């Protein structure tokens, strides 16, 4: 955005080859056929909460919302859901049940809630701090037996992939990742978010909680990820897909970056099934949450947007269809707290 | 439904809502009206066609920002109540949250503002202010000109106040939560002359000075927020200030509030060049018995 529009368009006009045309609204040059697509896109409108905004504006408006709330995001989550969002996220991670060695991409992962739970669940000794949410091993807690290492760690040793080197694995007991040679072994989560402010808050939290390795923070757009095809074992997006301008595009990208056999999991607000509960939930959402936002986060409008955007998001079945449209299969969903939230899951099948 | 006829109308509508899950009739019951935005006369006709086609959610919950004035956020009675309680708690917890003090004033001040507006309309200078609606910010006031005035003038004293504490007249927050367009300017004027009141009374912006000013404002404007701040503010005073408050400043502030002219009615912008003592005499403001000087130990903003 360096040169002002007038001089930019003047430059374009003088240097245009004959076959190119210029868009009147934004002064960008295109070939004739692409110009048609571009112009029809310019007029497309989408929803921003209950307001109607041009598609290009939505991304910027959402960016500003999260820039404003980043500082008090976690406190507001706790206050609004009375801490229940923690239970949802714990259940979400239990449903995913990642094995050590999993490569996860957590999109719209902002402040790191899912990433930290992932590392605690599946991580190496080095990346897991000793005090964060310790869970007993469900396989051995009632019996006094010794299980083989692979079973205890929940590791899947895929016979189709390169053979395990027995001599190197027998020496170490703690690090399950030694069963797979090289850098492919390490459990890793890539936290991707479009908003740098949220990532910064996440990095601070990681330092405070002691998550030092196995996590990387990347700024990126869910609709256009910078990762290679088939590069992740699992893809999660928690309370983020609702804010994206083009949900189908996000799902398509998820399908692209997942490895064959990889799992897509989405935790998102959804439609409450029971009508009586729905009216109570609506009253609570619209009457209480924006006020909380003003008192705690100094921002009424962002939280008004939040409760409105929940209503604008497709319901469980419709969203499941959208996931199927992207190519993911075995799509299922599970309602949480009567449908206030829902976990959708899908797999990218091996050919 | 015939069996419901035995119950009162209110119970009937509640039962109807529970059993038939109707939410569109929310506005007809008094309980339900707590959760609905007030439609103003000017906007009712515009809304009529939209209401037929929009979903239930939107008609009940759609907010139109800046509907009555720039910065307007419509609120339901329930929201105003919750905002009042929430902002009161937050004010006590963190007095530096000026937006919470403003929210508290706006959500609780409806009747006081109506009363204040009536008082302004009865006074000739007040009527002039309501007509011209002057706003105090760096565009309308030449701060350098104020600095060039002689030492004992009101304008110079105000300039000292702004300079010494690093304030700017632009820092006063706009009004958000008042739903009556007539009262918006009254609240704005009250907020904008707060610093001028500080100057006139000679009170610094530490906790003790703020409490003194709030007493004067509470007595003059009747705003519940001022009353609450004046009552609960002293809880946060340190021991030395508490002594001074009890011995001297409390009674002086009450006297000032009762005897002096209603400060919202004073067109301060016309009095910059006036001598401070003359102005105080005109407005019947008793100068502080012991001048209070801020040492910087308790800092609010």
Written description of the protein model:
Chain A: It is an enzyme of class 2 (transferase). Chain A: It catalyses: a 2-methoxy-6-(all-trans-polyprenyl)benzene-1,4-diol + S-adenosyl-L-methionine = a 5-methoxy-2-methyl-3-(all-trans-polyprenyl)benzene-1,4-diol + S-adenosyl-L-homocysteine + H(+). Chain A: Keywords: Membrane, Methyltransferase, Mitochondrion, Mitochondrion inner membrane, S-adenosyl-L-methionine, Transferase, Ubiquinone biosynthesis. Chain A: It is a peripheral membrane protein. The complex is a heterodimer of chains A (351) and B (301). Chain A contains 13 helices and 11 strands. Chain A is of the alpha/beta class. In chain A, the strands form 3 sheets. A 7-stranded mixed β-sheet of chain A has the order 7-6-5-8-9-11-10, sandwiched between helices. Chain A has a two-stranded antiparallel sheet with strand order 1-2. In chain A, strand 10 (329-336) and strand 11 form a beta hairpin. Residues 1-13 and 162-184 of chain A have low confidence and may be disordered. Chain B has a domain at 109-282. Chain B is 57% helix and 0% strand. In chain B, helix 4 packs antiparallel against helix 5, helix 9 crosses helix 11 (194-201) and helix 12 packs antiparallel against helix 13. Chain B is globular. Chains A and B meet through helix 11 and helix 12 of A and helix 3, helix 4 and helix 5 of B.
């Amino acid at each position: 955005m360096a040169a002002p529009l007038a001089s930019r368009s003047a430059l374009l006009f003088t240097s245009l080859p004959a076959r190119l045309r210029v868009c009147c609204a934004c002064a960008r040059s295109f070939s004739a056929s692409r110009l048609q697509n571009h112009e029809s896109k310019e007029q497309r409108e989408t929803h921003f909460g209950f307001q109607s905004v041009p598609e290009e504006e939505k991304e910027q408006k959402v960016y500003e919302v999260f820039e404003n709330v980043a500082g008090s995001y976690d406190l507001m989550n706790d206050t609004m859901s009375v801490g229940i969002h923690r239970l949802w996220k714990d259940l979400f991670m239990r449903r995913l049940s990642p094995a050590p060695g999993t490569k996860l991409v957590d999109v719209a992962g902002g402040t790191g809630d899912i990433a930290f739970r992932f590392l605690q669940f599946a991580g190496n000794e080095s990346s897991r701090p000793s005090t964060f949410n310790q869970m007993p091993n469900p396989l051995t807690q009632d019996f006094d037996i010794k299980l083989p290492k692979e079973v205890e760690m929940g590791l899947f040793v895929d016979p189709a992939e390169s053979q395990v080197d027995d001599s190197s694995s027998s020496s170490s007991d703690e690090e399950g990742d030694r069963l797979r040679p090289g850098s492919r072994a390490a459990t890793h989560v890539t936290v991707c978010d479009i908003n740098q402010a949220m990532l910064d808050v996440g990095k601070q939290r990681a330092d405070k909680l002691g998550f030092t390795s196995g996590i990387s923070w990347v700024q990126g757009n869910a609709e256009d990820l910078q990762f290679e095809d088939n590069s992740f074992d699992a893809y999660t997006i928690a309370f983020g897909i609702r804010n994206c301008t083009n949900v189908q595009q996000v799902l398509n990208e998820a399908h692209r970056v997942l490895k064959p056999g990889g799992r897509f999991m989405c935790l998102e607000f959804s439609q409450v099934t029971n009508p009586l509960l729905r009216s109570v939930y609506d009253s609570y959402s619209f009457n209480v949450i924006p006020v909380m936002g003003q008192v705690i986060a100094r921002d009424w409008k962002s939280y008004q947007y939040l409760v409105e955007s929940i209503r604008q998001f497709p319901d469980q079945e419709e969203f499941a269809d959208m996931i199927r449209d992207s190519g993911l299969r075995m799509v299922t969903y599970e309602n949480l707290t009567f449908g206030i939230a829902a976990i959708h899951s899908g797999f990218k099948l091996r050919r | 439904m015939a069996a419901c006829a035995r119950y009162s109308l209110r119970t009937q509508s509640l039962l109807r809502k529970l059993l038939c899950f109707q939410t569109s009739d929310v506005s007809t019951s008094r309980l339900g009206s707590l959760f609905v935005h007030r439609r103003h006369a000017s906007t009712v006709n515009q809304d009529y066609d939209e209401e037929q086609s929009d979903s239930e959610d939107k008609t009940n919950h759609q907010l139109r920002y800046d509907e009555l004035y720039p910065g307007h956020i419509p609120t339901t009675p329930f929201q105003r109540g919750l905002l009042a309680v929430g902002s009161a708690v937050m004010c006590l917890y963190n007095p530096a949250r000026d937006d919470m003090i403003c929210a508290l004033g706006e959500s609780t001040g409806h009747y006081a503002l109506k009363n204040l507006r009536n008082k302004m309309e009865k006074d000739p200078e007040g009527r002039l202010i309501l007509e011209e609606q002057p706003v105090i910010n760096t565009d309308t006031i030449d701060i350098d000109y104020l600095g060039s005035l002689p030492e004992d003038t009101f304008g110079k004293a105000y300039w000292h106040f702004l300079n010494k504490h690093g304030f700017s007249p632009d820092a006063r927050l706009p009004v958000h939560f008042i739903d009556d367009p007539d009262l918006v300017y009254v609240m704005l004027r009250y907020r904008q002359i707060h610093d001028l009141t500080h100057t006139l009374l000679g009170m610094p912006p530490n906790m003790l000075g703020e409490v003194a000013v709030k007493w004067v404002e509470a007595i003059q404007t009747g705003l519940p927020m001022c009353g609450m701040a004046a009552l609960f503010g002293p809880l946060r005073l340190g021991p030395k200030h508490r002594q001074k408050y009890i011995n001297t400043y409390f009674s002086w502030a009450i006297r000032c509030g009762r005897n002096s002219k209603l400060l919202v009615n004073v067109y301060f912008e016309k009095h910059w060049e006036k001598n401070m003592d003359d102005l105080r005499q005109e407005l019947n403001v008793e100068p502080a018995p012991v001048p209070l000087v801020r040492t910087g130990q308790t800092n609010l903003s």
